Amino acid sequence: MPFLPDLPIPDGLIFSSGGGAEGAAFADTLFSLFILFLAAKIGEEVFRRINQPGVIGELLGGFIVGPFALGLAHVSITAEVFAELGVVILLFTVGLEVRIDDLVKVGPMAIAVGTIGFILPIIAGVGIGLAIGEEVLPAALIGLALAATSIGITSRVLAEMGVLDRAFSRVILGAAIVDDILALLAIGLLSGFAEGDLGIDTVLTLMAGLAFVGIGLALAPLGRRLPRKLFVWPRFADTPVVPVFIIMFAGALLAQFVGLAAIIGAFVVGLIIAETPVREEVEHGFRSLLGIFAPFFFAVTGANIDMSALIDPELLVIVLILAVMGVLTKLVGGIAGSWKLGKWNSVVVGVGMSPRGEVGIVVSALGLSLGLINREIYAVLLAAVILTTLVAPVMLQWTVPRAPRDERHPEEAGTGAA
Amino acid sequence: MPFLPDLPIPDGLIFSSGGGAEGAAFADTLFSLFILFLAAKIGEEVFRRINQPGVIGELLGGFIVGPFALGLAHVSITAEVFAELGVVILLFTVGLEVRIDDLVKVGPMAIAVGTIGFILPIIAGVGIGLAIGEEVLPAALIGLALAATSIGITSRVLAEMGVLDRAFSRVILGAAIVDDILALLAIGLLSGFAEGDLGIDTVLTLMAGLAFVGIGLALAPLGRRLPRKLFVWPRFADTPVVPVFIIMFAGALLAQFVGLAAIIGAFVVGLIIAETPVREEVEHGFRSLLGIFAPFFFAVTGANIDMSALIDPELLVIVLILAVMGVLTKLVGGIAGSWKLGKWNSVVVGVGMSPRGEVGIVVSALGLSLGLINREIYAVLLAAVILTTLVAPVMLQWTVPRAPRDERHPEEAGTGAA
After folding, report:
1. 3-state secondary structure of B387
2. Torsion angle of alpha carbons B29, B35, B40, B42, nearest 10°?
3. How many CA atoms lie within 13 A of A197 on its CB side?
4. Which residues, 6 or more positions from B177, have their beta carbon under 8 angstroms from its beta carbon?
5. pLDDT tens digits, one per residue of A43-97
6. For the whole model, what pTM was predicted?
7. Which among A186, B3, B251, B265 could disulfide-bond with A304, CB atoms 3.0 to 4.6 Å apart, if both were Cys?
8. Cα separation of A347 and B354, whole Å?
9. Quick check: B80 and A49 CB within 8 A?
């Protein structure tokens, strides 16, 4: 890249257009990005050809070239940024597919699924924590690490299967929002307890999070009144893609700023844009962006999988118990909260809520940094989180075809007409 | 991002989906990217509204938010990677617009423009270097820093003006390839001289560079025989966008590997894809990618502008002399090499070849690291390079409308029909 700072440059990189001071790191970063992308696509191809979810192939491709296997690619901050933008764009495009009215319709159900499916894993985690001899606070941390759903993988699988318009998909998406708000509250409470001061900060953070989602959902129906020219008034914009990209990016950053996940912000922006006349144009224009960025999310997720905790048989047992309880509790949450959708539909909701991700990792890292848990428990938690993530796509592929579309209840019937 | 390594995380970032070990750097990087993009687009908007080239607005937007002005955004390696991919995608899409036959037709002219426009700045630079009291080798370095054209800015302006199909555009693009090969040779020779061993490496590097371009240009016409299904055979590919992105990325990395600029590789891949039946689909699909990535190139270039050398009046004079001579020598190269295109058309070629960029920076950094030049001369060279870059878009906007399309000579006439 041009105009680099004035530092000596390493030999052999002097020709590189990415030369200069950070030349080596730059070239390595670019090469790793290419390898991660290529591995994800090859992995997807192989898995699709054996009729398995492409996303597992992408995860595995990333794992194989990543630092815990072949080591061909390293996961730089740049790769993480590509991955984050990938999942942000993914959730934004998922938001584009959802009509706000349909989401509001399943609101009570989503709240039930989200809440039950958040409390049960905490109880299970605390139980397991106490059973293996941890104190109350560490046990609570284990529970919390097991609580929060990560919607990225599920969204991708549902989109791949073409069932984002089904009621269970909307319940999952709504429940993911509820889940994220509860995580916001719980992490605030836990850090407050651990640091001995449960200040007004937690309350403020929670209120900011609720306000963000509330205002976003309230604004969405107003999108119908926005004219197309609002999105293409800038001279630089022939299409709404760049202006909407800016809005999406801003929404993701704002969500992150108030303490929510960036993807929740992108999803809410997607909901709003879905109501405007530019929806189809944006959906079309974002297809290439999704195709280029999203694979990084799955490849990087795969590349970061460190299964070393699974080598010790004793730890392996704890990992498996945590992972199984993690899936079971979300399954119960899904079934109990969305029973009205019918048996298999509610099972799909539970399965869809199973993958844990960034919040689980962040909570575990928080526990480690606060001294609540040691490195062993930390590794165990990571491995359990990863397992729930790997299992979900397979289970979704198995359960979704069993969930009938013709269940006789208003939500699912309503969808068919939409 | 999920699955981060097991390190403590900074307070306040625990909610961030980008949390974890590198949480702070990650959040900062993401925010800086947003600011750079936003600034580029606001800058472009302002400049378009006052009927000036949008690209200057993007550069200026980046400069204003960058570390040498307001400091709202910092230029991380991630931003450099986005910028590099931006200019790679830009040159790839430019390649899509060019037919290989048309490029070969202007081949001799491009070689003349590229060669004359490479030798003259070296002579001028050496002269100025000797005049300010430098030794031969440092003076040669100053000449070389002034020699190599950077095609990114010119491509963008020509595309913005809708004149990529004109003969002068093709001459510029062809001459840029010649220019890059000469730079490859010259840098090899200079480092050889400076390090006292002029080995076989230089010859090998040059041959690899020539082979890359030669094979690429020879392959391009074969593109016509490639069926569409070759680009969409993977199950993951509904459209050719993702496979072609992989090929473009590989071409850019390969060019960099053999010592050429990454953008030359992307341009050559663009030439090849332009001959295939998927050209239009790819062009369409890459429009959003171009819209999202390319602004980073200009914003980052702007953000890295450090004009501190211009504060000292004595240095300022040298900067201005170097910049003026830099533009004049390219102008003479353009006029002398492409005189057959007619007066104004050949002036446009010269103006289009004026912007210097990454190679100038890299050569200057090389000179600094080899101890050939001191920090003052280094800063002077950077400032001169930047000036040639800033001046070109304005001059292009002034000269292109004066270059008549109806010049009576086979190349330009042939273009009208294409």
Report:
1. helix
2. 170
3. 3
4. B110, B114, B213, B264, B267
5. 999 998 998 888 889 999 999 999 999 999 999 999 999 999 999 999 999 899 8
6. 0.86
7. B3
8. 65
9. no
Tokens of A37: 């992308």
Distinct helix (H) and strand (E) counts, chain A:
18, 0
Give the chain B residue nearest A256 (alpha carbons).
B16
Asked whether A164 and A154 are in contact (CB, 8 A), the reply is: no
In 3D space, the residue among B8, B12, B351 whose CA is nearest the CA of residue A372 turns out to be B8
Q: Give me the helices (H) in A146-199, please.
A: 151-161, 167-195
Quick one: closest CA in B to A384, which residue? B3
Q: Nearest Cα to A94, choosing from A11, A32, A154, A175?
A: A154
Residue keyed to tokens 């942000």:
A88
B49 in reach of chain A (CB within 8 A): yes
CB A326 within 8 A of CB A121: yes
CB pairs under 8 A between A and B: 272
Q: Which residues of B touch A20 (CB under 8 A)?
A: 361-362, 365
- Contact between B129 and B139 under an 8 Å Cβ cutoff? The reply is yes
Interface of B with A in 305-324 (CB under 8 A): 305-306
pLDDT above 80 (res B23) = no
Using an 8 Å Cβ cutoff, are B146 and B384 in contact? yes
- Asked if the ipTM is above 0.95, the reply is no
Task: Write the CA distances from A328 to A68, A126, A128, A391, B62, integer angstroms.
Answer: 29, 15, 14, 12, 51
The verdict on A14 touching B (C-beta cutoff 8 Å) is yes
Give A75→chain B minimum CA distance, Å.
Answer: 9
**Residues A317, A382 contacting (CB under 8 angstroms):** no
Torsion of CA B141, B143, B145, B150, to 10 degrees: -150
CB contact (8 A) between residue A358 and residue B289? no
